[in-house]
Specification:
Length: 383
Amino acid sequence: MAEMFFPSVQLAIKPGTIDLTWGQPDPTLLPVEEMRAAADAAMSKYGADALGYGADAGAGPLMHWLAERMGQNEGRMPAADEILITAGISDALDQICTHLTRPGDTVIVEAPTYHLAVRILQDHDLDIVAAPTDAEGLRVDALEGLVSELDSAGKKPKFLYSIPTFHNPTGASLSAARRRALLELAAARNFLIVEDDVYRELGYDAPSPPSLWSSAEDGMLLRMGSFSKSLAPGLRLGWLTGARDTVQKLVRSGLRDSGGGVNHFTAMVVAAFCEAGYFAAQVTSFRAAYRERRDALAAALRAHVPQAEWRVPGGGFFIWGSFPDGRDTTKLKEAAEGRDVTFIPGSRFYVNGKGRSELRLAFSLYSPDELREAARRLGEGAG
Ligand SMILES: Cc1ncc(COP(=O)(O)O)c(C=O)c1O
């Protein structure tokens, strides 16, 4: 009988290929020893409490640590009924859709947007409409027109899904003026904002811009945070802060009534990890490593692929490119794969058929030397 093979991780890369597809942390940078020590500390400190069903809203020690950190870093501390531990942003978005939408409801995303969030929205049979962006992020002026159009067509949006800080895929961060304008528009037109804040800890040049949540009025906004990029994605751990009614709807859901808080044991271990000071050390080392990688890839792209315009982000995992000559990046991908380098063509990030001449390159997984080599091969493929 053939031997059965069950993969352990999602990451799958063709040997020899430099694969700039994956927006995932470099496994060699993950804090294996510190997590081992934290698991030990959590068992000593919490004992059987770490192994029981967790409280419905999530593990208390982690919520406490997160709330204090938000108070310090964001100038706003969530009240106890305004925070929920989630199994990451993917889970949070799925739960928001489960509890706030019905099939056929309209939601707005950015064009371009995180393609796998779109998959989640599609799972809920939502009508997905795109609002344009530019180098500064979401175009709030254009969004206003879109909301009016939808309103008059009787399709009031259930929410706007937005990534205002170190956007995936463009790397853009919404300016302070646009953040204010967006919050004002949402209040005036009475729509909910679902803020994806996954890259908050990965700012490389300056402190990250304040979250929308930190200055949003009650009830208008849900902010999804995650440990996936700042610590490790296999933890499947994140949080939701904001609109009290919705947070409480999720806390009181059948899912949590039956299963308790999600990933309770992991959350207790991560609480011990954070309390020991390992979190701060980890984000410092991630930032240093990813800053160097971003800079190496950006310089090499300018040297080897000058035909494209490259947007170098202040944080996150991606460099976004576009070819003013209008060439098709799915064809470029074929040429690049012949030279053992690959990426995601821009069209994958749009729900409205745009992005033909754009592309996303992730720099998180590879060393500066490998990234320079990737740019050289891409340049050959681009001709
Ligand atoms: C913008 C964005 N949101 C969410 C996720 C997934 O987050 P999580 O692992 O917390 O589900 C990613 C991962 O690439 C992402 O880039």
